[in-house]
Structure prediction request, 333 residues.
Amino acid sequence: MQDTSYSARPERYRNGMAYKRCGHSGVLLPRLALGLWHNFGADREECTCRDIAHYAFDHGITHFDLANNYGPPPGSAEETFGRLLNRSFAPYRDELFIATKAGYDMWDGPYGSWNSRKHIMASLDQSLKRLHTDYVDLFYSHRYDPETPLDETLQALTDIVRQGKALYVGLSRWPRQAAEYAFRFLHDNHTPCLIYQGRLNMFDRAPLQEGILDSVRNRCGFISFSPLAQGLLTDRYLNGIPTGSRMTQERFLKSDILTPQTLRRIRALNELAGERGETLASMALAWILHHPEVTSVLVGASSTAQLANNLSCLQSAPFSEEELARIEKILTD
Prediction:
């Protein structure tokens, strides 16, 4: 009979950060983790990247989330973090929980993308070189591949753990049916899925609507990416599109998404956040953490001040039933 007494243990804390158990595992993850998607590429000042990473660690963020293609250019975020790992984090390696991924376009040719064993194995070897480490704590299949046999992908993930190149494996953005098959396969092969990564925020509630959170319950943890809808759920767009914002680049955040209806919702949510005595970003993060299935939330930051604002969500007051109903009305009216 499995001993589940650990589930009764209280959350642990470090430097004001709460940690939550990740599914049925021994891993405790900080409620906020740092994602290095946009802000750690070669186009950023390395001193700024260093300051953000140091600030995160000093405030209890031990989980750093990367992928092979993060940059720009692809691979440069891993290279930046690898230098930080060498120069300042080396004495603390055992306190860090480093994740990377493979599955999106990384190099030309038939093996530079998707979920073949060839791509996954080669990509991880490249990531380890860029990161200057012998292993990562967590390795993800970054997206579902509808053409590669699931067993091929999942066996590759299993073998990566057995080779010691990753301690745990996870899935990102897999549809529910394929994810449930993967959960069973990995469990039966003694490399259970540690965590599922999906997009969850006030404007994108697909994991709630598609049953992903139901699927991961009692199996693995869940970590949310894009929790602020790439900046929509902040005060940045309250008065339209500001000069120099991500939306002006028309790359990942298109301007046509800021419809009059979306703007009304942003302003209504911001009004509620003000009544709660917090920023819209802080309230949006606290709303995600309110869901008991959520282990952690990935936040990006372009400055220590932005990260400090995100961290303030850990002091947010619990939501009342009236506030939750008001949020639901704003999002669905």
